[in-house]
Amino acid sequence: MKDKKWKDMIEKHGELRFFSSMAIKKSHKGQGTSAQELDMLFRVALSKEKVTPGYLKDAMGISKTIISRLIEQLENKQLIEKIRTNEDKRSYTLIITEKGKKEIDDMYYYYLNPLYTLKENMTEEDFEQLFKLIRQANKILAK
């Protein structure tokens, strides 16, 4: 074994998986929109720049194939709409529809409830430190 403390790393990995499972709400039974679809929908709705599939791939850290599938699913549910560019008909940006805005209004508290729970039960300093460290870790792992 290269790492004599690998058992400790396995334990930490388990803690990370448990945290992720608790912090990321799954869609509840009967809900037609998955957590990953909601994540994309929030990003389309809140972005200050034009949202393209490439932007979403980078922002969400998932493959182009999964991005395409999510876009297709949200478009089929009429929650987002593609706006084709005049220069290249294959290129497009995404906008949220009125139905998509309603979906966000209906789902945001359920989806964000674990974060509200953390915020209410941690000091503001600890809560901000947690996300500072998560951003730092994301930058390292994205390289």
Automatic annotation (TrEMBL):
Family matches, as InterPro entries: HTH_MarR-typ (IPR000835), WH-like_DNA-bd_sf (IPR036388), WH_DNA-bd_sf (IPR036390)
Keyword Methyltransferase in annotation: no
Alphabetized SMART domains for the sequence: HTH_MARR
Entry keyword set: DNA-binding, Transcription, Transcription regulation
A GO term, aspect molecular function: DNA-binding transcription factor activity
Record domain HTH marR-type: where: 1-139
Key word Transcription regulation present: yes
Name of this chain's protein: MarR family transcriptional regulator
